[in-house]
## 1
Amino acid sequence: MIRLGLLGATGRMGTLITSLIQSEFKSEIEVVAFARKGDSLEPLLSTDVVIDVSLPPVMAQLASLAVKRAKNLPRFVVGSTGWAPEDYAVIESLSQLTPVLVASNFSSGVFALSMILKDYAPLFKKLEYTPVIIERHHCHKKDAPSGTARTLQKSISPQNPDQIQTQSIRAGEVIGDHEVTFFGAGDQITLSHHAQDRSIFARGAIQVAKWLTQAPPQTNKTLGMSDYFESLKTESLGVS
Ligand SMILES: NC(=O)c1ccc[n+]([C@@H]2O[C@H](COP(=O)([O-])OP(=O)(O)OC[C@H]3O[C@@H](n4cnc5c(N)ncnc54)[C@H](OP(=O)(O)O)[C@@H]3O)[C@@H](O)[C@H]2O)c1
């Protein structure tokens, strides 16, 4: 049985992860620790794996506690978005001590979109198309552009991601839409991802957490969704 800690358990994502575990994963995962605002974060460190769906400063606080402890640490799946560089540094330190996977988006569809962009953005650039990202999210979302938009910017332009024009719309209860349009002189090409249900992120987070418990204990680098999907590819090919 995997002993899971959940940071952000009372939020939109946390609530969904808890109910999905109860409905679909209860024979293999048990939520043994969670922290509400004001609670001690220490109990989260006595688990096998922690899923973070809170806020970067809160996860950074937990990571600092873990780095101080340095031994017998759980693994970490970090899903919070909107990281400031000063908060993120401790995540990199934590990755030297225990496997840590950071993902701005746990859905396989967004991963596929970012792979398509990685492959084809150089061609669009050669053909002189200008990429523009438009992302829409619910009015409660705290960060803009979204973490996913930042990931897509990097897929299009790894060297100069900030130069990709990006517009953020925060309105209503939109779960998460990302649209990448390549504007040419006389035409335009649009690739888009539309999340219809938040459970695609919750299920992805749980699957990644399960996978992370099997990862080698020392990875020495922060893992991402590409590491997870690459390992699925080798598994399905029967490569060890
Ligand atoms: N990677 C992905 O696929 C993905 C998908 C969706 C969202 N996200 C990200 O996940 C995060 C959460 O999203 P959400 O929509 O679930 O937000 P939310 O509904 O606002 O939930 C935030 C959670 O963080 C908790 N929290 C805030 N301050 C805290 C503190 N000081 N100590 C302990 N807990 C604290 C909140 O607890 P209280 O209720 O007590 O305030 C709440 O449980 C955001 O960064 C979002 O961008 C990631």
## 2
Amino acid sequence: MAISGFAFGPGALKVTAGQNVTWTNADDTPHQITLADGGKRSGVMLKGQSAMLQFDEAGNIAYFCGLHPGMKGSIEVTARN
Ligand SMILES: [Cu+2]
């Protein structure tokens, strides 16, 4: 996943339960992934840095940037077969 221009790309992502998602910050400004349900947050990513979160349970995950709450994204986690 890219973070560029104060946006997550792609804004909506589908993964299978158990998968990791990695974000890499291309902006000069730091960003941080914060799950909207309050469960997990990443470290702050400076330019060029990455952060990874693992999603073990199926469901729709909404997240935002902890430093810029107007930056929003979502991940659809589907159950493993
Ligand atoms: Cu941000």
## 3
Amino acid sequence: MNMNAFDVLVIGLGPGGAAAASAAARAGLSVLAIDKRRKLGEPVQCAEFVPLPMGRYARPALVQKITGMRSVLPSGACQHSDFPGLMVDRARFDQALATEASKAGALVQAQTVLKELDQGRRTAVLRGPNGQLEQACYQILIAADGPHSTVARSLGLPPLPVVETRQYRLPLLRPYTDTDIWLSDQYPGGYGWLFPRGAVANVGIGADLKLVADLKAPLERLCADLADQGVVGPEVLGRTGGAIPVGGMRASLVHENIVFVGDAAGLTHPITGAGIASAVVSGERAGQAAAAFLGGDGEALESFDEDMHDEFEDSLARAVMRRQWLMERWHTPDAHLDATHKRGWIAFREYFAA
Ligand SMILES: Cc1cc2nc3c(=O)[nH]c(=O)nc-3n(C[C@H](O)[C@H](O)[C@H](O)COP(=O)(O)OP(=O)(O)OC[C@H]3O[C@@H](n4cnc5c(N)ncnc54)[C@H](O)[C@@H]3O)c2cc1C
């Protein structure tokens, strides 16, 4: 078994890990960043919307601009909100971030899986593209390995609660610049969406599998309704899905010299499911904190943890609270009331009320 030593080992090359690897390498650290996927960024498991502040990262992957969000309540009433953002080709988005990391000097390795962590010896066992086992020693490990983090499991941390999603790509039959959101008891623990992506649309639903038998039937009903209305064509051009953490951020993002970012840290918004921006921001800051720590600032990792709590905790805690409130109402008469969903969705002032 080969043994290599790095200042920073990054597990996972989604937006969180790639941003962390870039920042650490730019600061002059030796970085190994691995991902188990054969091709980085693929298959895409995303509706592909990013908020405007992600514009710098989105440029190489930009598909179209979004101006608003239409939120549809159970009665059929619609709320239109300004909600500017960008639709990206998520595979290209992730690949561009990984290329940046590589250009900054990080060693970027696909098809490489974290098998085991020996925190005492600060060593990870990795299985590489040809099945060979390698050991990598690290001073700091950045856990960017998504909602079902292997690193968290190795440390004995509890798994994050998640909702499941299912999404189809369909031909879009008319130009669209809004995202559409459906709030309904048909999608308990989540919502339905249509995100336009040029000539196609990502149509999906998220729901809590404790509350629905499966996601296929409600998604196919939504797609059929949209096809009947002439919004989308009937042929399914692609299928995807995946888990979204909905329990809010981990109590601590730092465990000795291990730093959690993005979905692995629980930074995804538990109501909207958005997590790309928080993954990039936390990843970059973790890479910078690693450099500061190894440069002699013994408090840099704790400061990172505090900064992330300051930045994300309030909005995530409100979302967790609203989610719990909604969880008590799904499949009850309240779940058919517009008023319930106004309190549970970010487009309405009721969501932000005390
Ligand atoms: C259907 C769906 C739609 C979504 N739509 C949006 C959206 O429109 N906008 C938005 O902002 N967010 C969206 N999200 C959430 C968003 O995709 C995530 O928040 C984001 O990907 C988090 O980035 P990350 O880098 O933390 O984790 P990930 O992107 O999940 O990356 C983790 C990486 O770690 C790798 N990995 C895992 N375990 C190991 C291991 N043991 N060894 C090596 N590698 C490993 C994985 O292969 C993966 O590439 C959506 C999620 C889903 C499921």
## 4
Amino acid sequence: MEISIGIIGLGSMAKAIVSPLLERGEYHPQNVLGIVGSSSSIAPASNDLPKELKVVSSEDSLSKEVWKAPLKILAVKPQQFKKITESFSSLQLKDHFPKPLLISVLAGITLKSLKKAFPGHTCVRAVPNTPSLVGQGLTGLAWEDDITLDQKKVVRKIFEPISEIYELEEQKLDSFLALTSSGPAYIALVVEAMADGAVAAGLPRNLSNQLAHKTVSGTASLLREKSLHPAELKDMVASPAGTTISALRHLELAGLRSALIEAVVLAAQKSRQLAEEVSS
Ligand SMILES: NC(=O)c1ccc[n+]([C@@H]2O[C@H](COP(=O)([O-])OP(=O)(O)OC[C@H]3O[C@@H](n4cnc5c(N)ncnc54)[C@H](OP(=O)(O)O)[C@@H]3O)[C@@H](O)[C@H]2O)c1
């Protein structure tokens, strides 16, 4: 079996990345090997993917073949990183030129840790976010210094179908992640709370949920399409002595703005702390 892409951790993020590449014919499914943790995950992982794409568990002897691929996507949970590095270090692999490319989407695993764990590879850190699952994501990329222009092109082509790409210095990825990767959770919380408020004010649950998320998505489209600063939009909506300004007074008193600022800062700090724990 000739493998063009080896996927270590064929979970939801890896599937979101690989599916458009297969649909666009950039890679052939028979040349893709996906690895999952346990054999019970093979069927769910294979679901929605072409049947020619081979999926095996990490216990299967074929899983070692993944390390021969010129392009690897590492998409396990960060807690599984150590196990993966141990199974890689037990293999005797020949050096290749150009070096195989390894793209890691793991939060908090630095390029330094990746290079140390996977010698002989050119490593890339990618920080995609959950909206990538519906083709509307954002991906931050940080390269190791000796990556070639062709390898950069390969990486951009992988993330372009699912996200807008931002190439950043590695130390900025923690802040990028704190906003873009954790951000969908903050917004989901806001949507849920706004819907709860509508229920408290007397609307039915289903309608409240639907209206809350359409209000958020419509507001995001309005800000984007009219290139409005958020303050301009707020001022457009808040009329003198009206309902919105009464609600905004309460949000300021409750500290919503400061809570969100601190949330992003804390998430960035946590990401740095996790990186230090893994590399120590
Ligand atoms: N989902 C997102 O929106 C998102 C966004 C940004 C970054 N990320 C990053 O993407 C990574 C994956 O996230 P995910 O949400 O896609 O997780 P997931 O759906 O749980 O996928 C993880 C995959 O790794 C497999 N796995 C476990 N142990 C393994 C081993 N020893 N060898 C090979 N594969 C193994 C799992 O198989 P089993 O199920 O059998 O254990 C599963 O298929 C995480 O590091 C996360 O930080 C995710």
